[in-house]
Amino acid sequence: MRTAFIVCFVATMLQSTAGRCETAVPENLAPPLEMKLAFVGHATGVQIYVCQAAASGAPKAWVLLAPEATLTDASNKPLATHFGGPTWQAQDGSQVKGKALAQAVPDPESIPWLLISVVEHKGSGLMTPVTYIQRLHTQGGKAPVGGCDTSTLGKKAPVPYSADYYFYSRRE
Q1: Cis omega before residue 59 (within 30°)?
Q2: Which DSSP helix (H) or strand (E) runs through 35?
Q3: Percentage of the chain modeled with pLDDT above 70
Q4: Which pLDDT tens digit goes with each residue over 4-47?
Q5: What are the angstrom distances between the C-alpha of 38 and each of 59, 103, 128, 130, 137?
Q6: pLDDT tens for residues 119-147?
């Protein structure tokens, strides 16, 4: 509940998330209690899928290749970019790479909400203290339905999405 309250409070401060507090954050997406919210970014971009042949004769399918998004702060100023890895790179060049730990699907029409653990840091700056990331309030971004067949193998499909990313660091 602590995380849901913080997320709700911060969300009301962001224009992009106003009115989303009615959706509580599932407990499996809460970062450890020793974490504190460092900053929040609103992402707008695409999830890029590629049509691939599945192993062992299974049907062809759209597979996530990478995200491409820009994150902005509460003032709508550029904060970071999000790309394959998954990686987030701040305007100052500092980066984190993450690994998904848990997910929830509050909206079946959108990509899942995630709890992500940071597994790699590069550079020094905004991202340096980040240890966990939540992806919440997703809109869109799901793989295309159909259209992946022999004639489209290797074809890419960018699907628009938006989400709020909550970056956490250790309490001092």
Answers
A1: no
A2: strand 35-52
A3: 85
A4: 434 444 444 444 444 445 568 999 999 999 999 999 999 999 99
A5: 43, 21, 11, 8, 18
A6: 999 999 999 999 999 999 999 999 999 88
The dihedral over CA atoms of 75, 81, 82, 87, expressed in degrees to the nearest 10, equals -120
Locate 57 and state its tokens. Answer: 């004769």
Query: Which residue, 128, 131, 137, 138, is CA-closest to 116?
Result: 131
Looking up tokens 């009615």 gives 22
Break the chain down into helix, strand, coil percent, rounded to 5. 15, 50, 35
Residues 101-125 have pLDDT tens digits of 999 999 999 999 999 999 999 999 9
The position carrying tokens 């919210």 is: 37
b/e per residue 2-30 (b: at least 16 CB within 10 A): ebbebbbebbeebebbeeeeebebbeebb
Give the pLDDT score at 23: 64
